[in-house]
Design goal:
Layout (H helix, E strand, L loop, with lengths): L6 H9 L3 H21 L4 H18 L9 H20 L20 H21 L2 H10 L7 H8 L3 H16 L22
């Protein structure tokens, strides 16, 4: 199964023992788990432990997940909790270079937090796109292509008139804004303007 399948398809299939569905879920959410682990600045070994524990817990709890669309939130929460558990168990403190002159109260740039937010935004956008009808999803993905495609190329590829691309794009973006994945992000969800990279 492809990672772009809706969670409403992947989760029940994985529950029934479909290995392809399980692999698609792991492939889809592995970058999110990795970003959260990196945000907590765990060692590679601890990060691997956290990741393995998250997937093990998912196997244990997949049957009790009532709403497939709740899976991304469950994975985020479980990964964060597991990172905090590992940090507490290790009793770790962040090493400080006393010769650097920054002192113990130095504020580090929130680069890791920004990277984590970017990964989460891209994941939400992928989930939102998966909720759209195939034709609208394909149109938005072509409009976000890098390098950009002209309307002529998009028209030829999708078999739709050039004049309908703009209105269809507007309807697709409006539908994207109303998806479950983007609901609650505010009036201008990240990525619907074409600035967000799907990467």
């Amino acid at each position: 199964m492809d990672t772009t399948y809706p969670l409403a398809v992947l989760v029940p299939a994985a529950r029934e023992g479909d290995q392809d569905a399980w692999n698609a879920i792991v492939d889809r959410f592995l970058p999110l788990v990795g970003a959260i682990v990196r945000g907590h600045r765990l060692s590679e070994a601890d990060g691997d432990d956290v990741s393995q524990t998250v997937w093990l817990r998912l196997v244990e709890h997949l049957g009790s997940l009532r709403e497939p669309d709740a899976l991304p939130g469950w994975i985020r929460t479980t990964t964060r909790n597991e990172c905090l558990r590992v940090l507490a168990a290790r009793g770790r403190t962040r090493p400080v270079d006393l010769l650097a002159g920054t002192g113990l109260d130095a504020v580090e740039p929130a680069v890791a937090d920004e990277q984590l937010l970017a990964v989460e935004r891209r994941q939400l956008l992928r989930e939102a796109l998966a909720e759209l009808p195939e034709g609208r999803r394909e149109l938005l993905l072509l409009l976000l292509a890098d390098p950009p495609l002209g309307y002529e190329a998009i028209s030829a590829r999708l078999g739709i008139p050039i004049g309908s691309i703009g209105p269809t794009r507007a309807r697709a973006l409006e539908q994207l804004r109303r998806t479950r994945a983007l609901r609650g992000l505010g009036p201008e969800p990240v990525g619907v303007t074409g600035d967000e990279e799907l990467g």
